[in-house]
Amino acid sequence: MGLDALFKQFTLDHEFRLEPSTIKTYENAIKQLLEYTEKSLDVITISDIRSWLGHLKEIGYKLSTISVKLSGVKTFFSYCLEEGITLTNPAEKVPFPHIGEKLPRYLTLDQLNRLRQYLDGRLQERAIVEILYATGVRISELCAMKKEDIDWSERIIHIPKGKRKKGRIVLFTWESAEHLKVYLESRTDNLPFLFLGGKWKNRPIYRQQVSEWFAKCSKRLGFKVTPHTLRHTFAAHCAQKGMPLDYIQVLLGHESPEDTHYYAKLYNQARKEMYDDFM
């Protein structure tokens, strides 16, 4: 099978698990590796991959970028081994570069309350903050929400197509439900979208609009807050209240080892801060 045909098959087999941009990034990494080694897939060795990674570092690639490229190479070679394209996976035992990771940033309860106070009277913005904080959803998931996705009696929101196109459900609190109801009752339209955007408020709200609005909030309040900050805040506050890590990860829709590692660090830090407050 030719390389182009193999990439096409890889894409078809992974389109329901990986975002198109991720697949493209992985494909580019493989092409870059092949160009560097001037070898075919079936003869590339672990030494070749290590040499390539060292070359990337020498020419100025960030460790985070190198890590993503290696992840792509590992995934692709694993696929090739499963499909019988290669006899081994030379990338399997290549370690990821050590990156001095920063802990995910989240709001303290005082900062969260200051944000809430700042939004007093702004019904849609306050409802957005409450839903992001109560559910931990991604901004893309929030923007795609429709009224029909909400089960008020069970306080459940259905996320039909989250990251990697896998649906799930999230829970929301009584407080967030009240703010969401007040906002929806203030609307006079019959549009199906949960939150409205655009100049005429006649379309679903979009990511850039929410990001710009949060940037203004950050400038006014004196601390940075983004939709992803509220996702981190949801996870951290759940940890501080004693929710097990695996429960939090289910609610966040996590599956990858990278996500697990990232939020495990946040979980441990949040629990430590709660311990420090009591001691």
Automatic annotation (TrEMBL):
Any GO MF annotation of the entry: DNA binding
PANTHER family recorded: PHAGE INTEGRASE-RELATED (PTHR30349), TYROSINE RECOMBINASE XERC (PTHR30349:SF77)
GO-annotated biological processes: cell division; chromosome segregation; DNA integration; DNA recombination
Organism whose genome encodes this protein: Lederbergia citri
Lineage, highest ranks first: Bacteria, Bacillati, Bacillota, Bacilli, Bacillales
Positions of the Core-binding (CB) domain: 1-81
Chain ranges of the Tyr recombinase domain: 102-276
Matches recorded under Pfam families: Phage_int_SAM_4, Phage_integrase
Any Gene Ontology CC annotation: cytoplasm
Keyword Cytoplasm: yes
Broad class of where this protein is predominantly found: cytoplasm
Subcellular locations according to the entry: Cytoplasm
Name of the protein in question: Tyrosine-type recombinase/integrase
InterPro entries the record matches: CB, DNA_brk_join_enz, Integrase-like_cat_sf, Integrase_catalytic, Integrase_recombinase_N, Integrase_SAM-like_N, Tyrosine_recombinase_XerCD
Gene3D superfamilies found in the cross-reference section: 1.10.150.130, Intergrase catalytic core
Keywords for this protein: Cell cycle, Cell division, Chromosome partition, Cytoplasm, DNA integration, DNA recombination, DNA-binding
